[in-house]
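pls ignore typos typing on phone
flavin-adenine dinucleotide + seq
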Amino acid sequence: MTARHPYDVIIIGSGAAGLATALGLASAARVAVLSKEQLRMSSTSWAQGGIAAVLDAEDDLEAHIQDTLAAGAGLCHEQAVRFVVERGPDAIRWLVDQGVHFDTEAGPDGHPRFHLTQEGGHSHRRILHAADATGSAVSGSLEERVRAAPNIDVFEHHVAIDLVVREKLGLEGSGCTGVYALNRHSGGVEVFEAPFVVLATGGASKVYLYTSNPDGSTGDGIAMAWRAGCRVANMEFNQFHPTCLFHPQAKSFLISEALRGEGGLLRLPDGERFMARFHPKAELAPRDVVARAIDFEMKRLGADCLYLDVTHLGAEKLTAHFPNILRRCAELGIDIVKEPIPVVPAAHYTCGGIVTGLNGRTDVPGLYAVGECSFTGLHGANRMASNSLLECVVFAREVSADILSQLPLNTMPTPAPSWDESQVTDSDEDVVISHNWDELRHFMWDYVGIVRTDKRLARARHRIELLRSEIHEYYSNHRVSNDLIELRNLALVADLIIQSALNRRESRGLHYTLDYPETSPTPRDTLLTPSPLRLDALAMRRWQMQ
Ligand code: FAD
Ligand code: SIN
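k done
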């Protein structure tokens, strides 16, 4: 018997986007928040540098807008940029009201004011932060509020598998009315039903071998939305962060761009500075430029890593502003006060995603997307540092307002079919799953990474086609597990990235190809549209009518 959970709104994901949306709804709606691990396990919790907003009298909104447009290399939607930047100060006030403590300092009048730091691409100091663990401060405060809200139920260790889309199941009506989710404790599949479903599932950087992201960044929301009939855009623009710690025991540890903002210098193994050769802003050039320069120098020298030197910043500043980076490096035997930090680029942020309007609505009625899984037009071909948390909060507030304006609904959707596993068996060869995971992430790194060519992309396309058919066959015949769900989604997202990269016959922002090194004079988005929804044989076999 499939367990059923009826709600007004189901939110899939518990990062800044999901939790802020839930809090915006809690006054007037019964909300379920699903999270595939503990609530706190998200990119949001790992965010370091901070959140960008114009709060300094010497800064102005227009400067933040122009910086974002410049970083986005001609592909940002100006309307979306203005929309987000103008709502930035209000989003910060909302976060402060939720209990988030940002670092302050004494202003010229002796009163405390926010301490603002600097990052690449920003022409002013405008990054609010909580030392070097801003994400933890944000998610901690939002989590506390969500857990205390009587109208919000939290379902940790529940992995969304697929959206209930009525057309696909041959049911009456149209649109999304729920989601099937694997309860990782019981091993059973449950159905969550609601007239509104919000995808807040984060990005897909786990598609690459080296990433700054937590394990759960597998693009589940983008894959589910595509299967449900939503368009996706600009999936070729995956951002590589220039400086992740290079150490055998340091999986996914980021060395914040704020260190460069405060004066950190990039050096070759022989100590030479090199960034000025690549961009007039040197270490504070946009992220795509810095990552490509590091990649170029590593390949030219055959080096395993390059170095970020912060020794001249002094122990006092490093201890005050970067205590977590200092501590983590010390645990690994690197004293950043005295020696340079070994760094390499790693996949960091998915600029493309599910196409939404400025109210978060997707192409499927009842389905919303918010945060890193969405494509709002804000980031263009390269996201500017610290604009992501801002985007999460601004659009979470828009999505909750849009849903609240439609409540209460007088009709309840007809129940979704039960999940039926009578025709599948337990996974007999988990090695197939782990092997395919490794293969996928390796070839994406080698062929669809920082520097691309048509030949490498064609190789990747060939491999992804084989992998996807193997994974489809496996998925059709075996019970779902977390690894299998994630692998299926990663393979689909990898395919979307490869298709998008093949479509873009120019170099722009994060997409750099040796075959088309020039930037086209007419910027255009890469829009991919799924085939029209039809009855899905696999879905029907799994989800038999009661
Ligand atoms: P996330 O925070 O990633 O949350 C996604 C949630 O969805 C998780 O709870 C996950 O468990 C859940 N989920 C996913 N799939 C499923 C599923 N199938 N079923 C159920 N739940 C699911 N940005 C900035 O603006 N400033 C920074 O300083 C900054 N620093 C960063 C540092 C690091 C190390 C990283 C990795 C990112 C950083 N970013 C930063 C980017 C920013 O943190 C993210 O883009 C942002 O937090 C994304 O928020 P989100 O809510 O969209 O997704
Ligand atoms: C960082 O602290 O370098 C990450 C900032 C971001 O990704 O926005």
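The CA atoms of residues 141 and 173 lie 39 Å apart. The chain has a mean pLDDT of 94. more later
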